[in-house]
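User: structure tokens for this one?
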Amino acid sequence: MKKIGLLPQILIAFIVAIIAGIIFGPSIDVVQPLGDLFLRLIQFIIVPLIASSLIVGVSSTGSMQTLGRIGGKTMLFYLASTLIAVSIGLLAALLFKPGEGVDISAAGSPPEPTETGGFINVLLNIIPTNPIESLASGNILQIIFFSIFLGLGITMVGEKAQPVFRFFDGLAEIMYKITWVIMRLIPIGIFGLLAPIIGEYGLSVLLPLIKLVLVVGFACLVHALVTYSIAIKALGKMNPLTFFKGIAPASLVAFSTQSSSGTLPVTIRCTEDNLGVSKRISTFVLPLGATINMDGTSLYLSVAALFTAQAYGINLTFGQIMMIVLIATLGSIGAAGVPGAGLVMLTLVFTTVNLPLEAIALIAGVDRFMDMFRTSVNVTGDATGAVIIDRSEKGKFNKDNEEETVAV
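Assistant:
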């Protein structure tokens, strides 16, 4: 009997979870520990995996010139794709008007606004004052900053730093092997995570805001199928069908966990094993993307802002719409790749353009459903960037190393 592949297993678990949630309702939460187990295992490997893989990825570039080129391309692609995502979200909200006819009085008390400290403070907080504390607390942005600079230091020191490089290279290989073992549990984890959500909320919670959920889902689908397909075909020189099939396991895990960072181990394996991305690129581009590339989240922010304005009958000025574009694009850098981060950024957007925060309480009721769509897009966008950067670097790595050797 032919062994069932991981993707079919995930799809089966996905369907079974939905059916079980509908049939058993809230009582299906008895399987929640299965989902919690999977999430804890994922959280268990995130910090050492990101740190070791990013350090190895940066130091493996071999030269500052190569690192600067790869980093520049990565940031340029992520910012461009996020800007396109925000624009698609705005167009979808303007076209379908999800907020019209919604009884906003159903909103209860809004969640407590989270203090963001401003964009400058977000950037300053990326720099850790105590790297050990950052590793212990799991502050992903600070871990990435520390790992990049440690990798840079290894590159600049050269031969004397090779023992340090070999240590992190060995640690990364160990984490990849542990990740492979944990990935076998994905179907069980998806069932344990998704079934209780469907059982608790059912379909009734979607009815008052079904249009908002559908618009977000539609806009995410358009961005994935159109923007990423064009980018993969034109810049990545890959058949889009091949790409989507290869990244499907990671996208489905993202859909179930609503965590870009939590899906990172699966994303790395899919891009390397299914899409042929080199480890040198995947270990640099993907951890960075899991933290700062939030296409789906930015798209959601633009739709939610216009939804609220339409529900309250507020006419946004052109300047306010442009401010939404700016905050949704740049704000994704500070959005953690964990469930619920979108609501934190939504508070920032609403405050900036003077929209009623009370609407957040209403949106929060269906946020988990929209979080599934936007996280899948976030992860798919990370993989798109990795494929494009990898293809653009083919042949350049060896050339850079030869130039470095000649210079020495």
